[in-house]
Amino acid sequence: MEFRILGPLEIIHQGEQIRIRxxxxxxxxxxxxxxxxxxxxxxxxxxTLWSDDPPNTAVRQVQNIVAHLRRQLGESAPxxxxxxxxxxxxxxxxxxxxxxxxxxxxxxxxxxxxxxVAESFDLLGTGLARWRGAALAGLTGPVIEAVAQRLDxxxxxxxEEQIELxxxxxxxxxxxxxxxDVSAEHPYRQRPIGQLMHALxxxxxxxxxxxxxxxxxxxxxxxxxxxxxxxxNRLHSAILRDDPGLRPRTAGTVEPQALRITxxxxxxxxxRFVGRSAELIRLDGCAADGRIAVISGPGGxxxxxxxxxxGHSHRDDFxxxxxYVNLYGFSQRDPVKTRDVLTGFLRAMGVAESAIxxxxxxxxxxxxxxxxxxxxxxxxxxxxDVEQVRNLLPGAxxxxxxxxxxxxxxxxxxRDDAQLVPLLALNPNESTxxxxxxxxxxxxxxxxxxxxxxxxxxGHLPLALRIAAAHLAGRPSDEIEAFTAQLESDDRLDLLxxxxxxxxxxxxxxxxxxxxxxxxAQRLFLSVGLLPEALVCVAQLATATGRTESETEQILxxxxxxxxxxxxxxxxxxxHDLIRLYARQKATTEVxxxxxxxxxxxxxxxxxRIAERxxxxxxxxxxxxxxxxxxxxxxxxxxxxxxKVGMNRGVGFSECRGISADGIAIADxxxxxxxxxxxxELRGTTDWMVSRTFExxxxxxxxxxxxxxxxxxxxxxxxxGNLGQMLYSDGRYExxxxxxxxxxxxxxxxxxxSIGANALxxxxxxxxxxxxxxxxxxxxxASIARYQQIPIPDVVARLTLARVYLDWGRLPQAEQxxxxxxxxxxxxxxxxxxxxxxxC
Length: 840
Known about the structure:
alpha/beta, elongated, five-stranded parallel β-sheet
């Protein structure tokens, strides 16, 4: 099946023309063919069909049109593939006239550079003969017209090039009528005007040639207010003096002009490249809309591989070639100097060594001058910073630059209009696919669960996955499960390296980024790695490290820019698993015991702070993770109070039971009565919360005994009060009264008012149950007075007082206190407050 767009749209199959039915279908096919081999986004197809006024169902209609188009073309047609949010049509070589025309033009340019003018002339004629009229004639719309204009411009440029060769070969006579038509159609296009002058002069019609110049000069001045170009003026002067240089060559070959090489410097694209469809489409958009794209991401994430893959798949889009340099911005080697890069680029484009200026500024100017009339891809790989890149950017021209870096290069976006393409780790399916391509699908299909686990242990990082696969590929008889178990038990980062290749090591990749950080950023990076969770918030990190939140956020921005942490959402940051593992290992030699202890103390303070201010399920989970991280720390008991806040809010009973059992075992082994008091008290509270009152009381007694051994008055007070509460719940009021009174007696003047308020409220409840209403009322009123000293509503104490009055038979006072409590509770925003008080 052949496709033709150099004229009206035609599809030829087995010598017969296929008519594409539907009002929109030919336009969709035309745009896909114009961008053959590349993904055309659905949004572009919507614009093609409806311009600025698409219907609400536009995307669905495009999908239906593509499906119908596939059916019309039939099974023998090249596939229209759905890729991401777009479609790609791939046509075999020799089956699309526009692609064959472009290939003819490229081959003709190569022959021209070699000096084979006659062959180049003939090949351009072959290419131009493929045209059957204006591109996509008969199809309308802004997008179609822009595509057609681009193709028609390519045709005109090829015609001008062929005429240039005809002038050299003395075959100019038959082109004079053609040039008159072109000049009439494009009256301000000065190259065909000059060619017409040259051809008329060679044909002995110099007077006509000079008249053409005069007419052109007047037209440019009258219509546009400009003068002819310097090149056209020089040609006019040469015709006036009958310059011999205007005469045609006598043979079909000429000496090659200044060598114009088409560099092809891109390293090979990996055959095992997987995924990244969204990023490839993003690069398509960058190439269409801008001059520079920055692929940024952490070391080992596959930035260079993505750039190579895209570059090779778009090689035909850059007829003047591709330039490549590894800037070694994050290598053990010294970064490449700017002038060395420029010199290498100039040599690659055929500039003689003697013609390269001695200064960097002059070399840059020459580089930009040469690039101005070319269309090339420039890949600046592994750049350290903006300054390393900026002096390697072409100036004018239709070139496209891809920069890869571990830094975000926001400066290039701000000043140079670069578009950013951030790159993260692969998703699980892509990771498994990469392993399958490297190891063979038979191995991953035989051990799918082990392959998934291996991908997780590699953090879905392409470099780590490739290294792991390389180890396994060298041991074809080994099971994936065995290597995975080794990664879990041994030094994972050490295993994720290749002997004899320092660049093929995950830890070395991270280390090169770490070494470029400021001192403050290095310290904060290590601190993040030492925290028990990969997800951290600014306030947590600031408290743990003793910095202000603004200082912490400023340093975190440096880490984000280096792709060593990533923004999770506002105020929260996440560290990749392998980077976190590297940070922890690095901290073993970089962080001393004092700094570690300060970090731990700061983190404990943070946990206590969130218990006082706000506490949700995620905060509770963070505290649980903190316990298991620091379970052997001598002050880990400080987390018990925070964990009880979580249980008071209805979460974490099983977690707290497991923590208390573990903490009791560790404290008992150390013979640490203070830790035992807290852990037994946590156990008792856990049992009490789930109505295991007998067990709770027994745990409470143990907690009080160890508190007394510790000699810590505040702990004795806490354990006494809580034991009294448990006994009260079990109906043992007299014993409960003893312990609660003891807790009240141990309250000091420095204790928070809420401690006394809670204890007095407990005692009032006990005395109510014992029928000692006057005492109970007095204690409840004392509790209310304590609550009023602090910004905590006195709802509980007033409710207790209402119950006392109710049992005492003083109904008006009971109703009054209940209403006061009700209003306070409603002021707190409790929606079901009235039903709660009805139960009272």
